[in-house]
Amino acid sequence: MDLIHQGQFNLTGLSKINVLLGKNGSGKSTLLKKVENRLTQQQVGEINYVTPERGGDLRYEAGVEQNVITGGNWTRDQKGRNQWGQFKNYSVAQYRRLETLSLREIETDQAIRANFAHTFNSTIDKINGLLTNIKIVRTPRGDFELFTVPGNQKLEARLISSGESELIALAIECLTFEKSCDPQRQNVLLLDEPDVHLHPDLQVKFISFLIDLVSTDKFSIIIATHSTAILGALLDYSDARFAILANASTDAAFRQIDQKYRAVLPIFGAHPLSNLFSQSPIMLVEGEDEERIFQQAIRSSNGQLKLYPCGVGGVGNLPDFETSVVEILKGVYDNATGYSLRDRDEGDEAIADIPPLVRFKTSCRASENLIVTDEVLETMGTTWANLEAEIEKWLVAPGGHVKHDIMTAFKASGYARKTFDLKEIRNILVGLTGSAKPWEIAVGQTISKIVRGQIPKDFNDNKLCNFLGTKLSNTLRP
Q1: Contact by Cβ (8 Å): 166, 197
Q2: Beta bridge partners of 459
Q3: DSSP result, 227-251
Q4: What φ, ψ does residue 474 adopt, rounded to 5°?
Q5: What are the residues facing 310 on neighbouring strands?
Q6: Chain-centre distance for alpha carbon 286
Q7: Which strand (E) or helix (H) includes residue 62?
Q8: 20 to 30 A Cα–Cα from 454, which one of 10, 153, 183, 434?
């Protein structure tokens, strides 16, 4: 299945597991319900929409099972609601159907039947593989009971966590669907916000469960969510696709998770809730040096600097990464902000924002120039006057160094500390300070001092804020 097109909606590029990202109110549920309605009318195969708000508890209720058996479209009508207060009671009824389907599968599939170790307990093991502190155990009555792990103490359904009950109910639903599918037909499972009530770690477990389930090649899945933790769990799965749904759109172009998203999605996935993400936004930086600088600044700030630096592998990659981050910010979060930072090099310092992405350029040529600012030199235990004297001695030392011409050019520039290209001689300069600190650590520690107010924001020549630039300095410390 790579295309679902029915005039009123258009989904392209689909694979086995497809994630539809979008913030609340973007129309994810509406789109899934349209897909479910049209494909059900066409009778293409098994089509199952799973509602986002799944209430109830894991107790058997005869009335629910009776409605499933005799209620015609009762189950589909209940699932079509955004909230179903008896979903988990329905899951217990579905468990009975799951057992019947599993036993029929064993009976009719010669390869499975030949494996005497394969029983209905093999299916139960898949459910229990999602759980850590509890397990389900089948009973002679055709239902299941809950027990602690370890300890094997029987539990009442009302005593388990909402996350555990969610996983059990979703697992039963998905396993029942898989065993209902005719592999010769088009079967689609539509999961609306399966992340509800699930900690990000449990979301990752559930995605691993789904990957194993779709390996049977019987069906495909479309997941509507605003949790980037779910998408992050699919980073290494080749048959995953994702799309970001713009508000009220009925078109979704699904695509593979390329290198850009592999880099940025784990950062977004750490904060699936937009208010948390807004407190620690992503900052795209050119490379590993800048990433280490800001990692150190964050560590040294005692919680006052909250960013997630993400190296993009070079300035040439920044535009593509910026486009991807803007897409995620707009499609998943409400009122979130992201940042990107690049070196000035030889160009203009000014750079326009791409809302909600705030963009910076350093006022100095590159991050290496931060080494020779007055405050960073102080962090390394020296001053510019002392460093200049050491450079002069280095230049006249016998033997000649392969970088001698570059250091000579630095001197000839009048020691243009802000604009000279120091990349090739940065390690020599650090060595001449006498400091054992890596330069990225020293720069990061000094930035944290500005953030914490330990040193003033000074924009005079050769000061750190002057090199960082007004816009970035005022963002780091308003």
Answers
A1: yes
A2: none
A3: -HHHHHTTTT-TTEEEEEPPTT--E
A4: -75, -20
A5: 284
A6: 20
A7: helix 62-70
A8: 434
Q: Which of 285, 333, 317, 325 is nearest to 472 (CA)?
A: 285
Per-residue pLDDT of the chain (478 residues; tens, 9 = 90+): 556 666 677 889 999 999 998 877 778 888 898 889 888 888 889 999 998 888 888 887 778 878 877 767 788 888 777 778 888 888 888 998 999 999 998 888 888 888 888 889 999 999 999 999 999 999 988 889 999 999 899 999 888 888 899 999 999 999 999 999 999 999 999 999 998 888 888 899 999 999 999 999 999 999 998 777 888 888 889 999 999 887 767 788 899 988 888 888 777 754 444 444 456 789 999 999 999 999 999 999 998 998 989 999 999 999 999 999 998 888 777 778 999 999 999 888 999 999 999 999 999 999 999 999 999 999 999 999 999 999 999 999 988 899 999 999 999 999 999 999 999 999 999 999 999 999 999 999 999 999 999 999 999 999 999 999 999 999 999 8
The residue assigned the tokens 């629910």 is 64
Residue 131 within any structural domain of the chain? no
Q: Between vectors from CA 367 to CA 364 and to CA 368, what angle results, nearest 5°?
A: 100
- 55 CB-near residues (< 8 Å, 6+ apart): 83, 84, 85, 86, 87, 88
Domain end: 361, 383, 411, which one?
361
The total number of structural domains that make up the chain: 3
- Phi then psi for residue 3, to 5 deg, are -150, 130
Is 302 inside any structural domain? yes
What pTM, to 2 d.p., does this model score?
0.77
Question: Containing domain of residue 193, as a range?
Answer: 3-96+168-263
Distance linking the first and last C-alpha atoms of the chain: 51
